Structure to design on (377 residues):
């Protein structure tokens, strides 16, 4: 009997719970919030089988939980993960703040000693972008450059995290070192329609995870674009791309003696895509999706190390989150 | 006359280098237009 506890019932957490309920092999989904009323509201909205639960800072986890799926704000994530590891429960987080990712990865030794797994960056980017990058790298013999870009936010908390990431100093991986570019500027990135071309700023988010996965790459960058919030938009002038989320992964390298590039992208509502990735990761940790799971040992790692890329892409496609490849034509 | 000859020599060398680069070069022009295709098949490529 597999039981998953979902903590953090915002836009992403609720969708992760929905995905878990729809996963054969998951028998119980418990939705937890600091206020029991909120948990009850969410469980009621999910209609078929989620159990509400109050989970304060010092409350023990419900009995029989196999995995915890977390969509709590970044500063609350490490403490919750520490408690999960101490209780011997595997943990998946969609937090994307760099300090949070580092704090979660620092639990590696504890997770190993307790025989549990901590999977970090289980959202759109970091998360699905890392899996797409791994998949793209597999199509190239030697990788030179890896560029990841994300457009869109999942909700108010996600928007505030994204703006924070854009304000903070951004680093990129260049020739074996993380360097800070003082003259960073926004770059136009082409995502699948209806998002299309968007200005994305260089950010630190997820760069270290990509470097750990592809240390041989000469250059790795991460970019992020945030839709502008307007209080009033005249009728007919609404930008349809603002409501969507997208991720684009571009890999450059060599195939034999020829220069080659692979570009993958995904478009979906940001909260839906992130929630689906988080929910599927939770199901993997609970043992409900053995075909998607990579044969990994206990410890803390990024999503790329916890799943088989092709199997995850197939599972996500089955749930409606479909990846696409850019088939370009060279125009001189 | 001498300057003209030098100019011709430089132009000839430039043409020769460009021909060699054009013939032997493996680099391709980056894709600048195209479309998105859903990943399919057993390999999801």
């Amino acid at each position: 009997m597999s039981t998953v506890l979902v903590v953090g019932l915002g836009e992403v957490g609720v969708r992760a719970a929905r995905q878990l309920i729809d996963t054969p092999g998951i028998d119980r989904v418990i939705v937890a919030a600091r206020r029991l009323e909120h948990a009850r509201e969410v469980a009621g909205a999910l209609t078929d089988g989620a159990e509400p639960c109050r989970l304060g800072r010092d409350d023990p986890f419900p009995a029989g939980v196999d995995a915890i799926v977390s969509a709590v704000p970044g500063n609350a994530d490490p403490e919750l993960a520490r408690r999960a590891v101490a209780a011997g429960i595997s943990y998946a987080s969609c937090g994307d703040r760099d300090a949070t990712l580092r704090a979660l990865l620092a639990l590696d030794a504890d997770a190993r000693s307790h025989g549990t797994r901590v999977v970090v960056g289980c959202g759109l980017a970091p998360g699905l972008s890392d899996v797409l990058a791994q998949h793209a790298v597999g199509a190239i013999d030697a990788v030179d450059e890896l560029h990841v870009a994300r457009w869109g936010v999942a909700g108010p908390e996600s928007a505030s995290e994204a703006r924070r990431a854009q304000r903070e100093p951004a680093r990129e991986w260049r020739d074996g070192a993380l360097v800070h570019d003082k003259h960073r500027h926004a770059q136009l990135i082409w995502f699948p329609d209806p998002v299309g071309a968007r200005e994305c700023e260089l950010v630190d988010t997820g760069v270290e995870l990509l470097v750990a996965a592809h240390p041989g790459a000469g250059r790795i960058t991460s970019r992020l674009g945030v839709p502008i919030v307007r209080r009033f938009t005249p009728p007919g002038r609404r930008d349809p791309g603002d409501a969507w989320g997208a991720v684009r992964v571009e890999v450059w390298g060599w195939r034999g003696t020829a220069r080659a590039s692979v570009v993958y992208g995904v478009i979906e509502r940001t909260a839906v895509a992130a929630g689906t990735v988080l929910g599927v990761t939770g199901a993997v940790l609970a043992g409900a999706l053995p075909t998607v799971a990579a044969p990994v040992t206990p410890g803390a790692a990024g999503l790329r190390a916890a799943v088989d890329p092709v199997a995850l892409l197939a599972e996500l496609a089955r749930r409606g989150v479909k990846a696409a490849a850019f088939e370009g034509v060279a125009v001189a | 006359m001498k300057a003209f000859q030098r100019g011709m020599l430089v132009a000839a060398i430039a043409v020769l280098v460009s021909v060699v680069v054009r013939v032997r070069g493996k680099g391709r022009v980056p894709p600048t237009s195209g479309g998105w295709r859903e990943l399919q098949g057993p390999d999801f490529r």
User: Anything to note?
Assistant: Chain A has two domains: 3-123+274-311, 128-271.
